Each structure stands twice: as structure tokens, then as C-alpha cells.
Amino acid sequence: MSQKINLRVWLKIPDAEAATVKNTLIRRLGYGHILADVKKERLFSIEVDSGDPLELARSFAKELVNENKESHKVHIGDLVYEDDYVPVKVALHIEDGEAISVRERLRNRLGFANVMDVKKATVWKLYFKTLRPEAEIAAREIAEKLLINPHKDAYEILSH
Amino acid sequence: MKIAVLQFPGTNCALETLVAVKTVGMDGEIFRWNRPAGELSGFDGFIIPGGFSYQDRLRAGAIAAKEPVLSALKEEAGQGKPIIGICNGFQVLVESGLLPGSTGGCAGGKSNVDMALAQNVMVSGGKIVRRGYYCDWVHLRHEAPSRRSSGSFAIERGALLKIPIAHGEGNLVTASPGLIKELNENGQVVFRDCDKNGRIINEFPYNVNGSTESIAAICNEPGNVLGMMPHPERAFFAWQLPAFDPRKQRPDDPGPGRRVFDSMKRYIEVRA
Questions:
Q1: Window 82-111 of A, Cβ < 8 Å to B
Q2: Is-contact A35 A71, C-beta < 8 A?
Q3: In this structure, are residues B54 and A20 in contact, taking their beta carbons and an 8 Å threshold?
Q4: CA A157, CA A19: separation in Å to the nearest integer?
Q5: What architecture (CATH level 2) is domain A3-157?
Q6: For A38-81, how does the pLDDT look when each residue is reduced to its tens digit (9 = 90+)?
Q7: Which ipTM score applies to this complex?
Q8: Which pLDDT value is given to residue A27?
Q9: Alpha carbons B96 and B15: distance in angstroms, whole number
């Protein structure tokens, strides 16, 4: 039976891309009255068909996370996010070459033959001054206005 | 005849583009993104050069597309002034909705963007042989009739140009049904990648980035806004051509890229 290992990875040094997105949302798109902060994580969802998932997660993290500048968190199965922000997951809906490369490297170069699939996404953590559902409506708007290009990306508001 | 060469943080081809503008006899200056956008109205044409605006954060061209100068540029485009986006400039024009500017956006979404320039995917013999950033000299075939677009105004249909590319995201894709057909029917496909004899071969190394129908450049419906992935300013003088090209031995000759800048000048002259 297959299992999904979710690896959430974020920078522990300042994230310039998240800062630029926050700046653009506040200064250019007028979200200053509602938006408090923007953070970003990378998400790897790795499907395996055998092995101890926690042990595998440790091995995958060793390969995919640079501990000098990044931190990570592992979730086996369901993803759980904190309550104080709206998590917006953005992923390609066209073929994701980087995810394929990661899968092939794990399987063929690093010997993880039990890796069946790898999916990659960016999770934007939008901190609002207001509560849901207003925050969620604004998050959808932000995703469609800035975070995605609908011709290649899809987004999803993740539940807590 | 004054051209604004727009410069965002991370734009890195502004200077050579300005040299090309001045060498064909136009006046010009580098226009930084944080100048009052209203000052753009004092120019007769605009070029967004290549580079990595905002370090390609989020995705290439996405942040620059939200700058006030782009809103001002839309107004200038509406007046028929020529705008040429080269490489990252093309990505900015697509992300801002200025190109192709035909459908008013993707159905159901709030985006006013009609297409995307996605990551390069090089396909040969039905297999993906390479992905991502690639730089090389490519051949382009001019697909539109002359006078159709501002940046190819003085180039005859079928002309071949040898110009370099250098990008990681030039793979034109769209989820808008019928858009490519519409671009073809309207003569908005300006250049396609081809082989040295002008044949369109829809696979690597002729199609260098996986772009739909080998499209390398498009214009808006009126033709004044042109976006192209190749860098004409890097083939402006014959001495810039690669060592194996015999034209390099005649360094004073114009290079093939000069025709894009000559076209822009001619377009402005005719329009005046």
C-alpha cells in the first residue's frame, strides 16, 4: 500500500521572493488594509510503495533540504497547517519538469526504488488582519491576480 | 523620435539596446521603473529589454507587470505607439496582458492574461531531451507580412534572421481555446523558430524551447506591440555574430538583428 510523505521546506534566512510578493500586494495591488504578512514554503509530496515512511522522510530531507539555510517539517499522509494564516498551494497544471527530475534522481541516482511519484508545489502563507471567510475570499483574489498564471498554474486553498 | 528603454531591477540588456536604438538614428534614453510613469507620454516608442526583472521572483515578468509604468505603457499602446519586448520584456508584456491582448483574460478567473511563457521543454523524437535555461544562435522565419508589426515593419514575409536566444522560460502555452488559431489567422505570429533553410521543424534543436507551433514572437492585434524571445540587440552588428559565420569577417556590416530596430524607426516615421 502506498503512502504519501509530505516535506514542507522553508528558508530560515530572509525570503526575498516572499518579501517581493508582499511588497507588490501591498504597494501595487492595494492589499495593505487587510494583509499583514506573506511567507512561503516549498512542498514536496513523495509517494512511496514500501518502507518506513519516517525513516524515508529523514533520508529525503537529507537530499532535498539544505540545512544551512532551510528548515523542514514532515507530515505522513494528510497535510496540516497552522491556524494563523491562509495557506495557498500553487502548482503547475502543465507537466512539472522539476518534479520529474527530483523523482528520477531519487529513484535512479540515489537508489530509492520505492519512490512512485513526486509532486512539487509552493505554499504561500498569507497572514491577514481579518478572519475567515473574508481572509479566504481575499486569498483567492490574490492567487488569481498575482500568484498564478492560469495558463500554467493551478491553486488550492488548503484547509487547516 | 525618442525611445524609452525601460529598466527594472534586474534588467541587464538596457545599454546594448540603447546603443542599437541610437545607431539606427533614433534618440533614446534608459527609463528606470521608479520614474514618474506619466513621463512616458513624452516618448515615441518603448522597448522592454531582456534580463531578469525582479530576479524572476514568483515567475518571469510577473512582478514588473504590476508596476505603474506598465499601466502607463498600456495607455501609450492604446495610442498606437510601438512597444517591443525582448526576452524578459516579452514575458513582462504577456504577464501584463498587453500581449496578445485579445481575449480579455482566461474564462472564470480574475487574470487578464491570455497565455504563459512556461519553462523550456526541449522535445526530440517524441522524448524530452532537455529542460530549462538554454542559449544558442537560432534561425527565425518572419511569418507576418511586412508592415504588420512595429518590430518587423520593414522585414519581408519569409525573411530569415539569425539571432541568439538566452532564456529559461520561452515555452508559449495557453489554456484559452482557439487563441493560437486566432493569432495565426490575424497574422499576429511574427516569428517562428526554423532551421537554416527556413523549414519549421517542431522539435529540438529547431524549436528551442518547446513553444507551441515554434512561435518565437507575437504582436497584438493592431500590431504596435511586439514581443520576441530572441535578442536582436545581440546580433545588431556583424561582429557580434558567432565565429563560424562568414559575415563576422565584415565587422562594419549590419547584423541581422538591426532589421528589428530599423523597422521600429520606419514604423514611427510612417505613423507620423
A1: 92, 94-95, 97-98, 101
A2: no
A3: yes
A4: 20
A5: 2-Layer Sandwich (3.30)
A6: 999 999 999 999 999 999 999 999 999 999 999 999 999 999 99
A7: 0.93
A8: 96
A9: 24
